Amino acid sequence: MCNIKKIWLALEIGNSQLHWALFNGEILDFTWDTEYLPESVISQLAQCQTLNNLLLAIFPLHQRTEVQREQKEILAEAFFSSPPLFLASVVPSQTTLWQTYPNIRVITLDQIPLRGVYPTLGIDRALALWGAGKTWGFPMLVIDAGTALTFTGADDNQCLVGGAILPGLGLQIATLGQKTGQLPLVETPNSASLPTRFALNTPEAIQSGIIYTLIAGIKDFIEAWWCLFPEGKIAIKGGDRTLLFNYLQTLYPAIASHLIVELNLTFWGMREIAMS
């Protein structure tokens, strides 16, 4: 792929949302999320003739004035048709919809220079690992605290060690409420305060059971990683990253002090590919 020196877009299609980034060369200027877009809207986006028009369609209203003000000179020069859009997707049906965009570059697993990658490794996991490793060095373990909670590691030779996948915090809570006859639906916690471990009501008992075992599992994976690579680094991303990090700080502060908390690891990986 060619080196991108001007403005370009990155789109990560996740299991529940679209994650966007606006780059100016190597500099990440803005990130935002949107819901999945209807096919008719995607077709309209493919017809946008300037970056400014494209941003009007996909950028959140409350941030649009800010990006237009700060990037005024860049936007004024962006009269080329359809700026480059680098796409990484874990949802094949969504990937197909975005193929109509005229200047799209779909990132595939074979473009990521990790060694020992197996064919079904998620592109999001591979990009986040590559981005984290290139930014902070290998060995690197990436914990993605999203819809699924994943662990993905590579050694100091940039070779995939492997990882694990389990339901994320919100999915565990939702599934327990949906798949049982008597247990209630409980909201995902949004407070950094840990629930009472031995609860005296059902909703708090659900939160206690899931949160304490989830944090214990994360701790176990981290300790296993350090047994393999005593100097290995660990980065955490995903929508629940801050909440889980705060829980780790409370329960296991020595472990939390070594974690790199960074939302944009996948975008760092996409930038490495775009700049190569």
Describe the protein in words.
It comes from Dendronalium phyllosphericum CENA369. GO terms for molecular function: ATP binding; metal ion binding; pantothenate kinase activity. It is found in: Cytoplasm. Pathway: Cofactor biosynthesis; coenzyme A biosynthesis; CoA from (R)-pantothenate: step 1/5. The chain has 276 residues and is an alpha/beta fold. 42% of the residues lie in helices and 21% in strands. The chain is built from 11 helices and 10 strands.
User: What's the helix-strand series?
Assistant: EEEHHHHEHEHEEEHHEHHEH
- Major beta-sheet overview: 5 strands, mixed
The number of distinct helices, counting runs of at least 4 residues, comes to: 11
Report the principal-axis shape. Answer: globular
Helix content: 40-55%
Q: What order do the strands of the largest sheet run in, or round the barrel if closed?
A: 3-2-1-4-5
> Span between N and C termini?
6 Å
Q: Tell me the β content.
A: 15-25%
Alpha-beta content class: alpha/beta
Q: Would you identify the regions where 5 or more consecutive residues have pLDDT less than 50?
A: 76-80
Number of strands: 10
Average per-residue pLDDT, rounded, comes to 87
Radius of gyration: 20 Å
Subcellular location: Cytoplasm
Subunit structure: Homodimer.
Main location: cytoplasm
Function: Catalyzes the phosphorylation of pantothenate (Pan), the first step in CoA biosynthesis.
